Amino acid sequence: MISRVRSLAVRYAVGGAVMAMTSALLVAPAASAAVKSCHSANGYKVTGANAALTCKGLDYYKGKTITFVAPDNVGGGYDTQARLYAPYIAKYLGATVNVLNIPAGNTIAGMNYVAGTNSNPNGLTTGWMNLGPIVLGKVLNQPSVQFNVQGEAMLGSTGNGLSALFALKSSACAPWDTSFAALLANQSATNVISEPVQLTGATTATLLNLNGTFGLHFRIIPGYTSSSVLIAGWLRGDGCVLYSSLSNAAKYVVSGQAVPLLTNFAIPSGNGFAQYFQNVPTFAQAEKSFFTKKHPGTKLQKAGIAALYGSSLANRIGFVPPKTPQAYQAALRAAFDFAGRNPNLTLQELAAGNQGGFLSAKQAKSLYLTWLKSASRVKQFYTALG
After folding, report:
1. Cα 101 from chain centre
2. Closest to 358 (Cα-Cα) out of 334, 327, 374, 322
3. Is residue 4 assigned to a domain?
4. Maximum C-alpha span of the chain
5. Which of 7, 33, 56, 242 has its CA 20 to 30 A from that of 228?
6. Last residue of a domain, one of 311, 346, 365
7. Domain tally for the chain?
8. Which domain holds residue 210?
9. Are 122 and 226 contained in the same domain?
10. Where does residue 194 rank: exposed (0-12), middle (13-18), buried (19+ CB within 10 A)?
């Protein structure tokens, strides 16, 4: 694991042995007539249709220093992923990568910082893009995001963040600790809890959407200043149901302290936690079983579904501003691809409690556009909630 340090900027220098990895993950897709080939700084061959651009970019990055912006505090999800990716990107490019934390504004300040380097697009500043506040800002006409997402150059994305709704197993929580169906049948204003620190975050957004879609009421209790404090309160019995990361949920499911009720996405069979969430419905499955001829649902509930899926896309998308030269973009995409598909990094992600996986730049942009297609329904939902 990469050691976490307290400073806001951490330097990862090039070095170390070349990691064993299948060439299929590292070589660009074959083209009928490769223009050029070269090798990355750590020895992997680059071929294919974009080889000429990528090779030119690799020449540029050797010996350079890159700033990787994590738009949250040290120890947060974006920070952790930046520190995991940084050494792999550094090795591939032959560069030094510094992680810089800019945590203000629910990740928006950090994203604006990266986008703002478009006035001097030297390819030496990249960072994570957070889809949630971007899309919400767009559909609700909130001007805090100061760039056009579709115009930014996306480099690749981490896999969907996996989360779960789970109930404390206790006599006090018996009405809710058997299944999602039991939770729906025994609703109260106190069964699902959250904390103020996440009022503008993805967790509270998801709970709002669950409330709007299924009527799952939740309360925010003052005094919870972090997820760990929230979990301590949940274990005390402050509330029966909690929505948190899959790794947090699995910890208590495995120990017998909790029962899983719902997951935001299907758990891949290769995920180490999959065995503990068998037959647990996903958002999509819950929607299908919830809205029936006998219970067709209101317009607000159906509008909430689109928002629910969107708030669950906790992907961290690497990006640079659009004026960044094409060769630099190509080299950075290759570096992100090398990092994201590296089995060693996947193991580190799982050990850190994150879901392993990687999406290409094209796939990441598709996710954004898919959510935007539901913009009118998302806007209707949040406007109704006030």
Report:
1. 17
2. 334
3. no
4. 68
5. 7
6. 311
7. 2
8. 163-311
9. no
10. buried
C-alpha torsion sign, points 194, 195, 196, 200: negative
Domain containing 234 — which CATH number? Answer: 3.40.190.10
Beta carbons of 8 and 100 less than 8 angstroms apart? yes
Task: For residue 13, count other CB atoms closer than 10 A to its CB.
Answer: 12
- Which of 286, 311, 336 corresponds to the end of one domain? 311
- CA dist list (Å): 216 to 183, 239, 243: 8, 13, 12
Three state DSSP letters for the chain: CCCCCCCCEEEECCCCCCCCCCHHHCCCCCCCCCCCCEECCCCCEECCCCHHHHHHHHHHHCCCEEEEEECCCCCCHHHHHHHHHHHHHHHHHCCEEEEEECCCCCCHHHHHHHHHHHHCCCCCEEEEEEHHHHHHHHHCCCCCCCCCHHHCEEEEEECCCCEEEEEECCCCCCCCCCCHHHHHHCCCCCCEEECHHHCCCHHHHHHHHHHHHHCCCEEECCCCCCHHHHHHHHHHCCCCEEEEEHHHHHHHHHCCCEEEEEECCCCCCCCCCHHHHCCCCEHHHHHHHHCCCCCCCCHHHHHHHHHHHHHCCCCEEEEECCCCCHHHHHHHHHHHHHHHCCHHHHHHHHHCCCCCCEECHHHHHHHHHHHHCCHHHHHHHHHHHC
87 Cβ partners below 8 Å, 6+ apart? Answer: 2, 12, 16, 97
Q: How far is CA 308 from the centre of its chain?
A: 15
Residue 330 resides in a domain: yes
